[in-house]
From TrEMBL:
It comes from the Bacteria. SUPFAM superfamilies: Aldolase. It catalyses: 2 5-aminolevulinate = porphobilinogen + 2 H2O + H(+). This is Delta-aminolevulinic acid dehydratase. Its EC number is 4.2.1.24. The gene is hemB. GO terms for molecular function: porphobilinogen synthase activity. Homooctamer. Pfam families: ALAD (PF00490). Keywords: Heme biosynthesis, Lyase, Porphyrin biosynthesis. InterPro entries: ALAD, ALAD_AS, Aldolase_TIM. SMART domains: ALAD (SM01004).
Length: 338
């Protein structure tokens, strides 16, 4: 103190930032971002069979579900207010081949799941992944020819598969393969088939990440993958290239943009939202989920608080929503808090 003048007031110019933090009610009044159930998309794994709900060992709390069990789960998700689910199939090995031809079957696993969900729970959105990796014998997202993932043949296949998924009732097609030109090809194919109302959520920036391991086990591709996916997924070092990828997707007709993985690429979420103004989503992938879940199960972190903090970080980074395996847990928690 110097006389009646407080030295802190001299330093800060009477701007004391803590005044707005002094009580719960003031903190709520000035809170800039909020997480709600409307921000959640629930990724789910579908398996063949009936009455199947098998745990994914590398993802504690996550199950692979047969179509009938998935329908029940979708009803619960809708009751909790979750806007949409994203489906990922674990296809029988006997149906996987070099070109992923089962992706073109109208009665394949992902399309059966879509029809069943839309019939039983018409109010929930269904987002389908049109990549070939669940259908290929080599685990890649495209057609493998002489050790090369061929771009144009893959694009032709996924555009055809997208129409079949839309025919089954998919509301949004989400191509995760990162082939050049796929968004435009899918948009043209959907429009030509009369599916002008079906949206495209582009995996605009999908990185060649180390965070996907548990997911690949969940869909049964982990042990199949020959080589890596670095010739078509983005280099984790490249942010400007990711923006160029997103710009092309916007030009080709994407309705929404996605960044995958999430937390390691929050900068891209912000840059895409700022650059394009389209709805931007982040995928909190399996490796992110498993790290948090394992630490929480071991009592090393407060799992509930960490989950909410990480999801809120996506909102702060400009995301309109988050694909998260925590979606159901968070929806229940938010409902409890009112």
């Amino acid at each position: 103190m110097t006389g009646s003048i407080n030295i802190v007031d001299e330093i800060t110019g009477h701007r004391r930032m803590r005044r707005n933090r002094k009580a719960d009610w003031t903190r709520r009044l000035v809170r800039e971002n909020r997480l709600t159930v409307d921000d959640l998309i629930w990724p789910v794994f579908v398996v063949p069979g009936t009455n199947v709900a098998e745990p994914v060992p590398a993802m504690p709390g996550v199950e692979r579900m047969s179509v009938d069990r998935l329908v029940e789960a979708a009803k619960e998700a809708a009751d909790l207010g979750i806007p949409a689910i994203a489906t990922f199939p674990n296809v029988e090995m006997a149906l996987r081949d070099e070109t992923g031809s089962n992706s073109l079957s109208a009665d394949n696993l992902i399309n059966r799941a879509t029809r069943a969900i839309k019939q039983a729970v018409p109010g929930i959105g269904v987002i389908t992944d049109v990549a070939l990796d669940p259908f290929t014998s080599h685990g890649h997202d495209g057609v493998l020819r002489d050790g090369v993932i061929v771009n144009d043949e893959t694009v032709d296949l996924i555009a055809r598969a997208a129409v079949i998924q839309a025919d089954a009732g998919a509301d949004i097609i989400a191509p995760s393969d990162m082939m050049d030109g796929r968004i435009g090809a899918i948009r043209r194919a959907l429009d030509a088939a009369g599916h002008q109302d079906v949206g495209i959520m582009a995996y605009a920036a999908k990185f060649a990440s180390a965070f996907y391991g548990p997911y690949r086990d969940a869909i049964g591709t982990g042990g199949l993958l020959k080589g890596d996916k670095k010739t078509y997924y983005l280099d984790p070092a490249n942010g400007t290239e990711a923006l160029r990828e997103a710009a092309l997707d916007v030009e080709e007709g994407a309705d929404m943009l996605m960044v995958k993985p999430g937390l390691p690429y929050l900068d891209l979420c912000w840059r895409m939202k700022d650059a394009f103004g389209l709805p931007v989503f982040a995928y909190q992938v399996s490796g992110e989920y498993t790290q948090i879940k394992a630490a929480a199960l071991n009592g090393w972190i407060d799992g509930e608080r960490v989950i909410l903090e990480t999801l809120l970080s996506f909102k702060r980074a400009g995301c309109d929503g988050i694909l998260s395996y925590f979606a159901m847990d968070v929806a229940r928690l938010l409902a409890k808090r009112g």
